[in-house]
Design brief:
This protein has a domain of about 240 residues. α4 packs parallel to α14 and α13 packs antiparallel against α14. The chain contains 23 helices and no strands. By secondary structure, it is mainly α.
Length: about 550
């Protein structure tokens, strides 16, 4: 049936956060900024909680902390892969498809899609949990301590797919608050359980460190329950509005249940691969690093475990706070790009790609360089004073820019239904990673995995950006000037923070955790002030975020 002009109007406007029942007009950039703000807040606070717990956790594990960190990383890398397989890319696929149906005023179809997805995610969660639990001996890579860790993590795989699916459903309505708040509650419950059990086992009862790590990983299941309860509350809160939207939608599409399942699976499969990209690279490191290091350097297992913990757990915990900035914007971009793709609006796609790249650069580059600048006090604060650990954290901070870029642009590819091509590009990156892994680790040691990862994801990102430019055009003339400003101000921020750290340590004790707090906060604040002042003074912040910053400028009296 041909659309009437009225239908077309509905189609165009349907995507504006329909759960809120508001008539406010909003541009795609406004929605991207608002959605990114929610997702960034949720992700950042969750990541901060996930990093801060390390301080007491390391103290309670004492001399076994590096071994515990290595064991935690080994278990979590395998768990992350199974979790992504269980989730099966369904949340992002659901978000994309729900946004698509909402755009054409077929809200009822999107809601049916979600309900069918619940059955699918429940089934995949059960299957993957069983495989992880009973397959633990085969996945342990001959480390018996990994087996109980995988057993404890299998429980979380049962719940998290359904929780993630529900987050994707709300994201399809461009409602990011439920995802952000549930993510924070999930992490809060997880960290609380981890700290309580670690304290009781290691500090009170002086128990076995492997049992303590096992309880810390079981905390993922406790956190999942907390996050799921938040989403259930949001769903019931909006249930009447969802019913109203379904009843008033066009209802011209009669899609059989079998076709809905096919649609979910077809959309979800590429999301599995792309969504697990960083985890796949980490698994390559986990299953190759130990053999290469022991052959090339003849190190003991304890030493290699410590080095592995440096890059796979210690630095990774901290840089993922920064990478979460990219993830937040990536999640926001998918449903909006899907809407633009549905309408066939190439200009809007071009604008959204350009806005996403600029927003990513504006937040990600100064954050990554700032973390590199304060790597020494950060590493001392969260772990202990360690020259190697500091250097690894600095290198990881630079690599995080490439990881964040990949996260954003791979999501853009998914949003415009270029999933298969994105998977093909990623396959090339995996080949590059494999080809470079042995020479890089053999020559650069603990830095080798970071370098091969950076080059692998760098190749993938270049291929994706080249394709996006060929198909939709990237407004490089609009990007070049603000990007140059971002780069200059970010380097200036790095210099100020780096100088603050090294000047402070001329007089302060570098081994002290208390001094590490002082130096980290001082350097971060001074660097942040420089970046804030420079971007406000030059109006770069206005270009990135819009008129919202004018109030900040007035408060700070920057003209």
């Amino acid at each position: 049936m041909a659309e009437t002009p009225q239908d077309k109007s509905q189609t165009t406007d349907a995507g504006f956060q329909p759960l809120r029942q508001t008539s406010k007009e909003s541009t795609s950039k406004d929605k991207m900024i608002e959605g990114s703000a929610w997702m960034t807040a949720g992700s950042i606070f969750s990541r901060l909680l996930g990093a801060i717990y390390i301080i007491p956790w390391v103290i309670w594990f004492g001399t076994m902390s590096n071994q515990a960190n290595a064991l935690f990383a080994k278990g979590y890398n395998i768990y992350s892969f199974f979790l992504i397989a269980a989730i099966a890319g369904i949340p992002s696929a659901i978000a994309k498809q729900v946004a698509h149906y909402n755009t054409i005023n077929e809200f009822a179809v999107g809601q049916r899609l979600y309900k069918r997805g619940l059955l699918l995610s429940g089934a995949t969660g059960i299957v993957c949990a069983l495989i992880l639990y009973f397959g633990a001996p085969f996945l342990s890579n001959h480390d018996p301590n990994v087996i109980p860790i995988l057993h404890s993590l299998a429980w979380a795989v049962l719940i998290i797919p359904t929780m993630s699916l529900t987050r994707g459903f709300f994201q399809g309505y461009q409602e990011m608050a439920p995802s952000a708040i549930s993510q924070f509650v999930e992490q809060l419950a997880r960290v609380a359980y981890m700290l309580i059990t670690a304290f009781l086992i290691m500090h009170v009862h002086h128990g076995n460190w492997v049992s303590a790590v096992s309880q810390s990983t079981f905390a993922a299941f406790i956190g999942a329950i907390g996050g799921m309860l938040v989403l259930v509350w949001y769903y019931f809160r909006h249930r009447s509005r969802l019913r109203e939207l379904a009843e008033n939608s066009k209802q011209e599409l009669a899609i059989p249940t079998k076709q809905l399942y096919k649609e979910i699976i077809a959309q979800a499969t590429p999301f599995i691969i792309i969504g697990s990209a960083i985890t796949i690279f980490q698994l390559i490191d986990q299953y190759t690093f130990f053999n290469i290091m022991q052959r090339a350097f003849d190190y003991s297992t304890t030493v290699v475990n410590t080095l592995y913990a440096d890059f796979a757990f210690n630095s990774n915990k901290l840089i993922m706070i920064v990478v979460s900035l990219g993830s937040a914007m990536a999640i926001t971009a998918v449903p909006m790009l899907s809407e633009a793709k549905t309408r066939g609006n190439k200009r809007e796609i071009n604008n959204q790609i350009t806005d996403a790249l600029l927003l990513f650069s504006f937040f990600m580059i100064p954050s990554a360089l700032g973390m590199a600048a304060i790597a020494q006090p950060l590493n001392t604060l969260f772990y202990h004073y360690d020259v190697v650990g500091t250097l690894v954290l600095q290198a990881s901070s630079y690599v995080s820019i490439i990881l964040g870029l990949f996260t954003v642009i791979s999501a853009i590819m998914q949003g415009i239904s270029e999933n298969v091509r994105a998977v093909g590009y990623f396959a090339i990156g995996v080949v590059v990673k494999f080809a470079l892994q042995f020479p890089m680790v053999s020559y650069f040691g603990v830095m080798g995995p970071l370098l091969s990862t950076a080059i692998g994801f760098g190749v993938v990102s270049w291929l994706i950006l080249r394709h996006l430019n060929q198909e939709y055009g990237i407004s490089f003339h609009r990007i070049s000037r603000p990007f140059a400003g971002i780069l200059v101000f970010s380097v200036l921020t790095f210099i100020v923070a780096y100088a603050t750290v090294h000047l402070s340590y001329l007089a302060l004790n570098p081994n002290s955790k208390f001094m590490a707090v002082f130096v980290s906060v001082l350097a971060a604040c001074l660097g942040g002030i420089v970046y804030l002042y420079a971007t406000l003074k030059t109006r770069l912040a206005d270009m990135m975020i819009g008129d919202r910053v004018e109030r900040i400028r007035r408060i700070l009296r920057i003209h």
